[in-house]
Amino acid sequence: MIEGRAKSKYVRMAPRKVQRVLELVRGKKVEDALNILHFCQKRASLPIEKTIRSAVANIIHGEGSNKVEVGDFIIKKAAVNEGPMLKRFIPRAMGRATRILKRSCHISIVVGDEE
CB of 12 within 8 A of CB of 104? Predict the structure, then answer.
């Protein structure tokens, strides 16, 4: 059972927006997932695609390139967790200020064979 993991930390994007794109590729074959992400018009598709490619590269590096065929891999787990928030303020009426939370997230992907 071959398995490769990759994490992208501190991605400056709200976790809710990343979660919507992850639902498109969870459980799919790697080639199909990369195809979907390449043509998806969401901004979150770029760091997810990069993380999937990193997980596949981790498998190839760990097992040796002659033993592994990339076409057989599927995305076993794809998760997004909340990262630290940047707290900013925006001026409002009558001298007040309102807090703005600039969210970040951590993307975790596990790629493995179909067994």
Answer: yes
Phi first, then psi: give them for residue 104, nearest 5 degrees.
-135, 170
For residue 106, list its beta bridge partners. Answer: 81
Q: What is the mean pLDDT of each run of 10 residues along the chain (115 residues)?
A: 92 96 94 95 96 93 72 92 97 97 97 83
Residue in this structure with the two tokens 């400056």, named with its chain if needed: 12
22-42 pLDDT, tens per residue?
999 999 999 999 999 999 999
Q: Where are the alpha helices (DSSP H) in the chain?
A: 15-25, 30-39, 45-63
| Domain covering 3-112 in this structure, CATH number | 3.90.470.10
Phi, psi of 111 (to 5 degrees): -115, 135
Please classify residue 36 by burial: count the beta carbons closer than 10 Å to its beta carbon, then call 0-12 exposed, 13-18 middle and 19+ buried: middle
Q: In this structure, what is the dihedral angle of CA atoms 50, 54, 56, 59, given to the nearest 10 degrees?
A: -170
Confidence at residue 66, expressed as pLDDT on a 0 to 100 scale: 65
